[in-house]
Write a structure and sequence with these properties.
Layout: H1 2-56, E1 81-85, E2 98-100, E3 103-105, E4 108-110, E5 113-115, E6 122-124, E7 129-137, E8 142-149, E9 153-160, E10 162-163, E11 170-171, E12 176-179, E13 191-197, E14 200-202, E15 208-209, E16 214-215, E17 219-223, H2 227-238, E18 275-277, H3 284-291, H4 295-302, E19 315-317
Antiparallel strand pairs: 1-17, 2-5, 3-4, 5-13, 6-12, 7-8, 7-11, 8-9, 9-13, 10-12, 13-14, 15-16, 18-19
C-alpha cells in the first residue's frame, strides 16, 4: 500500500515537472508577438524623432564645420533651392531707417543692409541659434557677431560698440547680443546686418522689412535661378527710399551709411522730415543755401560741427 502511494506521488511530481517547460515555452511564445510589436513601436518612435529633428533643425545638414573663424568661408554647399523658415523672428533693432542697400557700392559689393542706430542702442538676435564668431576687425566689421540659426541662416551684426555674448553661446530670438556703434570700417554709427546661407550673402530685404518691423512672409525659398531678379525687386520695395506702393522706383546703391542726420528711430518715422544726399564737392554752406536753411541749423539737426567732413552719399536732415 505504501509502495503504491509513493508511486502515485512520484508520478504526479513527474507530470507536474514535465509541464513546466511547456508552460515556459507557451509564455515565451506568447511574449514573442509583444516583443515584435514593441520593436515596431520603437522603430516608429525613432523615425518620428528623426523627422521632428529634421523639421526643427532643417539647417543641420547644410554645414560640415563650426570652428572656422571666417564669415564667408563656410564649409558648405549652397543648394539650388532651399526653404528658410522665418517664423519666430525678432527684429535686430527697432530702427526703421535703412541707410544703405545690399549690392554694388563704390565699385565693390555691399553684403548687407545698413540700418541707422546710435551708439549704445540695443541689438538683438534675429532668430534662435548659437553664436559662432565674436571678433573685432578694425578694417572691416569692427566689433561683430555671427550667429548660426536652426533655419539654416547665419546672421552677421557689424560695427557694434560692444558685444554682449560669447562664442558657442546659445541664444533665443530677441536676446540682446550687443550695442550699436561705429567701430571698424564705418563712417557713422549704424548696424551692418547680413543674412548668409552656406557663407553666401543673401539680400536681407528678401526676408526683412525694417520699415514695417516685420519679416516679409513666414518662409522664403531661395532659388538660384531667380535670386538676382527677386533681390533687385526686394531692394526697390524695401531698400533706401523704397515703398511698397512704388515698386518701379530705381534701385539705389549709393553709400549713406554715415547718415549723421538720419532721424533717431522711434515708433514711427516723421514723414515731414526732409533729407539731402551729399554730392561730390558740396559743403555745409552750399547745402544750406540750396535748401533754404542755415549752417547752424544743419549742424544742430545732424549733431555735427561746422568743420564736419562731408562724404558723397551721406544723408543730412535739413528740416
Amino acid at each position: 500500500m505504501i509502495f503504491k502511494t509513493l508511486k502515485t506521488i512520484s508520478f504526479i511530481a513527474l507530470a507536474t515537472l514535465s509541464t513546466i517547460p511547456a508552460m515556459a515555452q507557451d509564455l515565451l511564445a506568447n511574449q514573442a508577438p509583444i516583443d515584435r510589436k514593441m520593436k515596431a513601436v520603437d522603430s516608429v518612435a525613432f523615425r518620428q524623432l528623426l523627422q521632428t529633428e529634421a523639421t526643427e533643425l532643417p539647417g543641420a545638414d547644410l554645414y560640415q564645420d563650426w570652428d572656422n573663424r571666417y564669415v564667408s568661408r563656410v564649409n558648405g554647399i549652397l543648394p539650388e533651392e532651399y526653404r528658410i523658415d522665418l517664423r519666430g523672428f525678432h527684429m535686430p533693432t527697432d530702427s526703421r531707417v535703412v541707410t544703405s542697400n545690399f549690392g554694388a557700392r563704390w565699385g565693390r559689393q555691399h553684403k548687407g543692409l545698413d540700418i541707422k542706430v546710435y551708439i549704445g542702442d540695443t541689438i538683438r538676435a534675429a532668430f534662435s541659434g548659437k553664436v559662432r564668431i565674436v571678433r573685432y576687425e578694425p578694417r572691416g566689421y569692427g566689433k561683430y557677431v555671427v550667429i548660426r540659426h536652426d533655419n539654416g541662416l547665419e546672421t552677421v551684426y557689424g560695427h557694434m560698440s560692444a558685444q554682449l555674448v560669447r562664442e558657442n553661446q546659445e541664444v533665443r530670438a530677441g536676446d540682446v547680443i550687443g550695442l550699436g556703434g561705429n567701430t571698424g570700417r564705418s563712417t557713422g554709427s549704424h548696424l551692418h546686418f547680413e543674412t548668409r546661407l552656406c557663407g553666401v550673402a543673401l539680400n536681407p530685404a528678401l526676408m526683412f522689412d525694417f520699415k514695417n518691423q516685420d519679416v516679409v512672409s513666414d518662409y522664403y525659398t531661395y532659388r538660384r535661378s531667380t535670386y538676382e531678379h527677386e533681390s533687385a525687386q526686394a531692394t526697390r520695395l524695401r531698400g533706401v527710399g523704397g515703398t511698397a506702393a512704388a515698386p518701379a522706383e530705381p534701385r539705389q546703391h549709393t553709400e549713406v551709411a554715415a547718415a549723421p542726420a538720419a532721424p533717431r528711430h522711434s515708433a514711427m518715422v516723421n514723414s515731414d522730415v526732409r533729407f539731402h544726399k551729399v554730392s561730390k564737392g558740396e559743403t555745409l554752406y552750399s547745402i544750406a543755401r540750396k535748401r533754404g536753411t542755415t549752417v547752424d541749423q544743419l549742424c544742430k539737426l545732424n549733431h555735427i560741427g561746422k568743420n564736419f567732413r562731408l562724404t558723397p552719399g551721406q544723408v543730412l536732415k535739413y528740416n
